[in-house]
């Protein structure tokens, strides 16, 4: 028996003095209202309504039960309102500060269509993890090794010139081998990639191929790194999507496979699962997660990296 539905029907029928009007107020057919109240009376062992006259009236037992029934119905309605507000309450989500405004806006719109309301907090990797621990956000897209993550974003090098080669090799940037105009070109690592599983691998490869230490540098911000790329002809370690958004030409690195990995951390497990499962594809699009066949360059050569 739907106990709450039966009490709601009882309250409305008693207030309207009619099964027809009470059922309409409850938004159920008259026959359903009648059955529910009858089942409630059977459950309680007493009559709630007197049906002997044309107008429905309360029995003595019904009059005694009506105040409590009204409190129950009001409490149920209040709880339903609270539940709706809780469902619409934004889920504060820490995201990479490298995500573009349009990408976040599209993610927000896609999430709303799935009944998830997001409130973004852009931050670098270490800060995102701390925001979850301090419960300043409900969930965060955390930086993890790509094999451990839900999403993986392939990284390569991007510059202002469109090189006629398919793949960049770091050794081509050595001062002794590169043309004069390309000497000491730097590779800039943005804050999003200043994590051990990316930064340390790039530094090790820098040393292995004989680049100067200053040729691979962690930038204070993506803006600062991009300014060096645009103004000085340097290269930015980034994803294909970032390069496209910044108007740069991207190539994979032939002798170094690096990728961003992203997982979800949350103070409450349900929030993590909600983000991970319900928004998996939408977050992948926002991050520019790698899709096979998308990242190839225009040429077939795999020799020295291009530049200007």
UniProtKB/TrEMBL annotation:
<dbReference type="InterPro" id="IPR036390">
    <property type="entry name" value="WH_DNA-bd_sf"/>
</dbReference>
<feature type="domain" description="HTH lysR-type">
    <location>
        <begin position="1"/>
        <end position="59"/>
    </location>
</feature>
<dbReference type="InterPro" id="IPR000847">
    <property type="entry name" value="LysR_HTH_N"/>
</dbReference>
<keyword id="KW-0238">DNA-binding</keyword>
<comment type="similarity">
    <text>Belongs to the LysR transcriptional regulatory family.</text>
</comment>
<feature type="region of interest" description="Disordered">
    <location>
        <begin position="289"/>
        <end position="308"/>
    </location>
</feature>
<keyword id="KW-0805">Transcription regulation</keyword>
<dbReference type="InterPro" id="IPR036388">
    <property type="entry name" value="WH-like_DNA-bd_sf"/>
</dbReference>
<dbReference type="Pfam" id="PF00126">
    <property type="entry name" value="HTH_1"/>
</dbReference>
<keyword id="KW-0804">Transcription</keyword>
<protein>
    <submittedName>
        <fullName>LysR family transcriptional regulator</fullName>
    </submittedName>
</protein>
């Amino acid at each position: 028996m739907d106990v709450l539905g039966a009490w709601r029907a009882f309250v409305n029928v008693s207030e309207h003095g009619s099964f027809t009007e009470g059922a309409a107020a409850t938004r159920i057919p008259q026959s359903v209202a009648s059955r529910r109240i009858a089942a409630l009376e059977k459950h309680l062992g007493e009559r709630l309504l007197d049906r002997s006259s044309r107008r429905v009236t309360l029995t003595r037992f019904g009059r005694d039960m009506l105040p409590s029934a009204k409190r129950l119905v009001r409490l149920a309605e209040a709880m339903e309102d609270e539940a709706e507000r809780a469902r619409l309450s934004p889920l504060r989500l820490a995201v990479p500060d490298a995500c573009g405004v349009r990408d976040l806006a599209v993610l927000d719109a896609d999430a709303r269509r799935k009944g998830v309301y997001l409130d973004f907090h852009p931050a670098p990797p270490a800060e995102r993890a701390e925001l979850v621990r301090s419960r300043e956000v409900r969930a965060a897209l955390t930086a993890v090794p790509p094999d451990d993550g839900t999403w993986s974003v392939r990284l390569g090098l991007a510059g202002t010139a469109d090189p006629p080669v398919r793949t960049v090799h770091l050794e081509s940037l050595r001062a002794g081998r590169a043309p004069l105009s390309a000497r000491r070109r730097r590779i800039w690592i943005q804050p999003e990639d200043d994590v051990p599983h990316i930064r340390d691998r790039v530094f090790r490869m820098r040393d292995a191929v004989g680049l100067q230490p200053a040729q691979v540098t962690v930038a204070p911000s993506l803006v600062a790194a991009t300014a060096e790329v645009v103004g000085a002809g340097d290269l930015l370690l980034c994803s294909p999507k970032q390069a496209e958004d910044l108007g740069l030409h991207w190539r994979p690195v032939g002798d170094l496979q690096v990728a961003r990995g992203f997982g979800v951390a949350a103070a409450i497990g349900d929030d993590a699962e909600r983000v991970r499962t319900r928004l998996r594809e939408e977050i992948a699009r926002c991050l520019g997660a790698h899709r096979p066949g998308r990242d190839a360059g225009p040429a077939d050569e795999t020799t020295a990296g291009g530049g200007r």
